[in-house]
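User: Sequence in, structure out. Go.
Assistant: Echoing your sequence, followed by the structure tokens.
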Amino acid sequence: MKINYKKVWKWFKILAIIYVLGGVALYFLQDYVLFHPVTLNRDHNYDFPEKHKDVNIPVSEKSNLNIVQFFSTDSVTKGLILYFHGNKKNISWYARYPPYFTKHGYEVWIIDYPGFGKSTGKLTERTLYDWSNYMYNFARSRFSADSIIIYGKSMGTGIAAHLASLQPCKKLILETPYYDYPSVISHYLPIYPIDWMIHYKIPTHDYIERVAVPITIFHGTDDDVIPYRNAEKLKQFLKPGDEFITIKGGEHNDLYKFKETIEKLDSLLRN
């Protein structure tokens, strides 16, 4: 069979152009690819049925940090959950989760990142870390370190792990975490040099190695957003006493439908 080198070269050039254009788009538009926020007007009123308080903290002239505080439904408030959510929508999307914590006597404070909900400012990896510290320091005005549990979901797990590696707390709980950001993106785009292209690293593996308090990780085997095998690489960095809870059949956003998740969470919050 005779090879038509002219046609082969033509298709090679077309594929090369597509590859380069795709890479350029990914590099310059990565924030639109990685994050899917829904913004809200500053005067938006949340209508959550649970008792809550909407708090705005001016960080600078152009930045506003928005937190919603959900209050304990128990007769005694015994602690606080600092909750760092995922990469989409805003606090409204995650407001279904606080009742799992407030029934055990914990307040739950959920932060919106820059550009999410009513929070404003420029989103960078450094900003995510800085804002988590603002939230922690704000919490310490009311709660002792040993009554604060740091909780991260999806994208928020790296932020939570970073905070727990720097600040004293009671526990660190991670729901559907990742090894680091580039490794997750490489799973979907293995043809690109993601380590070089992506601005966001968020190396969860590096942070959990420095966390002194007990760590509990929940991850489902059928997670099609952050593959189970990606999170599984975190096991090697856990210390004795830490737990990696595998939810068989669990997906990225349905772990709270499983009895194993709820029973373990209840156990952690009762202690």
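User: And one key feature?
Assistant: Residues 5-28 form the longest helix (24 residues).
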